[in-house]
């Protein structure tokens, strides 16, 4: 399933369960011995790309491991794969979303961006509340050309100068 190393910590899972959908797994995710969150991992089927959803406790940001954690998921997912991360326990991100900031401007979204995700969506009420908690969706780009285009488009919407500078530096390199 999902195992590896992130910033010197062992990334592991516990209590793996299958769902009624054969490609969908549920489990608890740990970084070292600390609980990161409940995960859903859809491994993909045909034209349905893989995705990972984490009901996330943002403590890895305080430890300086959040970007590397999301980079692990970025590398696990194929092009066009999706990472969904809840933000209910992340009050700063939640407040910024409700103030109208772009997902990339938030602490959570900026970490996902630095991990490689370039297209974002805010799910305020996923499927009318039937698909879990509010979350950010980040998509892995299909290729470098798509990544550059998505970052250029985001420049029109992001407000924080730190995020704009990061995007400009990375658009030049693509």
Automatic annotation (TrEMBL):
SUPFAM superfamilies: Acyl-CoA N-acyltransferases (Nat) (SSF55729). It comes from the Archaea. This is DUF1122 domain-containing protein. InterPro entries: Acyl_CoA_acyltransferase, UCP017998. It comes from Candidatus Aramenus sulfurataquae.
């Amino acid at each position: 399933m999902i195992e590896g190393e992130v910033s010197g910590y062992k990334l592991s899972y516990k209590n793996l369960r299958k769902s009624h959908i054969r490609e969908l797994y549920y489990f608890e995710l740990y970084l070292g011995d600390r609980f990161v969150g409940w995960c859903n991992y859809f491994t993909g089927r045909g034209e349905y790309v893989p995705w990972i959803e984490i009901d996330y406790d943002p403590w890895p940001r305080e430890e300086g491991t959040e970007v590397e954690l999301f980079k692990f998921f970025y590398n696990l997912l194929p092009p066009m794969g999706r990472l969904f991360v809840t933000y209910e326990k992340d009050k700063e991100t939640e407040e910024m979303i409700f103030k109208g900031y772009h997902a990339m401007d938030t602490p959570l979204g900026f970490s996902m961006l630095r991990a490689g995700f370039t297209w974002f969506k805010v799910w305020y009420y996923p499927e009318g509340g039937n698909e879990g908690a509010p979350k950010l969706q980040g998509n892995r780009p299909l290729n470098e050309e798509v990544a550059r285009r998505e970052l250029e488009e985001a420049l029109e919407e992001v407000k924080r100068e730190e995020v704009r500078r990061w995007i400009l530096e990375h658009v030049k390199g693509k």
